[in-house]
Amino acid sequence: MPTTIGANHARRKLAANELVLCLGVNQMRTPNIAMLAAACGFDALYIDLEHNPTSLETAAAICVAALGLGITPIARVTSHDPHDATRILDCGAQGVMVPHVNTAAEAAAIVQACRFPPLGHRSDSGSNAALGYAAMPQAEVNKRLNDATLLIAMIETPEAVANADAIAAVDGIDMLHIGSTDLSTEMGIAGEYKHDRMRAAYETIAAAAKRFGKSMGVGGVREDLEFQAWLLRLGVRYLTGGSDTGYILSAGRTDVQRLRAVALG
User: Fold this and answer.
1) How far is CA 260 from the centre of its chain?
2) Cα-based distances in Å from 232 to 19, 150, 181, 261
3) Which helix H or strand E contains 7, and what residues bound it?
4) Is the pLDDT reported for residue 2 higher than 50?
5) Is this prediction's pTM over 0.90?
6) With contact defined as beta carbons under 8 Å apart, do 218 and 177 qualify?
7) Number of domains the chain is built from
8) How many CB atoms lie within 10 A of CB 56?
9) Residue pLDDT, tens place only, 203-213
10) What is the DSSP letter of 124?
11) In which domain, by residue range, is 184 found?
12) How many C-beta atoms lie closer than 10 Å to residue 83's C-beta?
């Protein structure tokens, strides 16, 4: 049996302190998006189930397609309800992003729901899509899925920033991920990602992640390579490059502007 079955390539890269670039999936509904992500060179994709009408069945199909391409499928779930996370994990996701994690207790609850014993109390479903449905003893299923599952706590409020050390200290949490749009909005400086207070928040999360051996991710910051370079120097190793919606709008607007200029020219 191949030893790479069920391997989480993004998790492996993060463990090696390598950069993971992720594509946000907001509006596309077919498995083809996994192929497009691979063709672009992304390492992972995250399916946004928090802000969009994507169904569990659709998300599962995208996850399965990504698995066959070596693209790590991650789902941003809707809430702290443990069934939101465990159902998509059972359907093929290799990671979950849980929104608005403000305390260590909330982070610990995520671990309890999403890790098998002895780390947590996730319900056994047998070998699943993330393992290619390979036949193996349940104990090995549990171990492999524990090893391959990426648990991401989203830091989106000043309270969460203040509790960064406590959240990062929770065994079983792999990453602290700043949701830049929500955090800046909560701070009263919506969209001002380079504001001194936002920079201080990034630095606080980076220090906490480094102190406890966790990865750091950032989303929402796009189209500013200089600022993205600053984040990478700070220690960010998981960066959402953009979303399907954003890329379509950006390319489409540019093309329309060029064609209208030609027509007027």
Assistant:
1) 38
2) 9, 20, 18, 37
3) none
4) no
5) yes
6) yes
7) 1
8) 13
9) 999 999 999 99
10) P
11) 9-264
12) 12
